[in-house]
Design goal:
This protein has nine helices and eight strands. With 284 residues, it is an alpha/beta fold. It is globular and about 55 Å long.
Length: 284
């Protein structure tokens, strides 16, 4: 497989740096081809602004969506954005690795999505009609590719449990996994999450790397999270609300995962949803 690792941590000597190096080595040893976008090393520009669109008409009010659409269609995007889009076209699998800061990804990685997901590439594709509301949520430019998050957190696994003070980790990652990865077409694999990163010893590090290695060895055949596809009968269009007979008794983000009995393949749902996030007490 062709693998793109998008990495967002400012310190190469951190735990994240160790995880990055291990991931690259493990994948290459297995025969995969790997590219790394190390955003801090690249001095990635995180802010989407007028500098991204030098061809836009001077003096015209800045409309980011309109400017993005025009630049993508005309081939006038900045070189750094076009290069990352080309990496995504090349990749069979994209891994996004980052420490969780303030319940989300670091700003530099969010800025990568803001700039790379241009209108016509990450969104704004496909017909909009009474039966089909754009190519998104299971369709889109990145359909046929896989994606996975590797995330470190300072909090304990219990803090991110169903009754934990921080809220369930699946809910916190939903806007990223469902909204930023599944939206443009990725099949999203269960995340690899490492908790309690403020303490580390050699034994825990070894156990973490072993667990990560197992996950990396299986990336080509791991069942993805069974998110519901938008244009395949589960949602009312154009309201884009889930049909009332689906997911009875459920609420929240869980509504948007297909139930095993609906999929007609019991192992699909259980394998994807129940795949455990790593919960090692290990420094981000």
């Amino acid at each position: 497989m062709n693998v793109l690792l998008v990495y967002a941590h400012p310190e190469p000597r951190s735990l994240n740096g160790t995880l990055r190096d291990f991931t690259v080595a493990r994948l290459r040893a297995a025969g995969h081809t790997v590219q790394v976008s190390d955003l801090h090393a690249m001095r990635w520009k995180a802010v989407l602004d007028t500098e991204d669109f030098p061809q836009r008409e001077a003096g015209e009010p800045f409309n980011p969506g309109k400017a993005s659409k025009q630049a993508f269609a005309a081939g006038t995007q900045t070189g750094d954005v076009a290069a990352e889009q080309e990496k995504l076209r090349w990749a069979d699998l994209a891994i996004f690795q980052f420490p969780m800061w303030w319940f989300s990804m670091p700003a530099i990685l969010k800025g990568w999505f803001d700039r790379v997901y241009a209108y016509g590439f990450g969104y704004g594709v496909g017909e909009h009609s009474a039966a089909h509301w754009g190519d998104r949520y299971g369709e889109g430019a990145l359909l046929g590719k896989r994606a996975m998050l590797v995330v470190t957190t300072g909090g304990w696994a219990e803090h991110y449990s169903e009754r934990g003070i921080n809220g369930p980790i699946d809910d916190l990652l939903f806007p990223i996994q469902h909204g930023m990865l599944f939206y443009p077409g990725f099949a999203v694999l269960p995340p690899f999450v490492i908790h309690k990163t403020g303490s580390m010893d050699a034994q825990r590090l070894d156990a973490t790397l072993q667990a990560l290695g197992v996950r990396l060895d299986a990336v080509s055949h791991t069942a993805p999270i069974p998110y519901r596809r938008q244009n395949h009968g589960d949602y009312l269009i154009p309201a884009l609300t889930l049909k009332p007979d689906l997911s009875p008794g459920r609420s929240g983000f869980a509504l948007h995962r297909e139930l095993p009995e609906e999929a007609g393949a019991p192992s699909r749902g259980s394998q994807a949803h129940d795949a455990p996030a790593v919960s090692f007490p290990i420094h981000s």
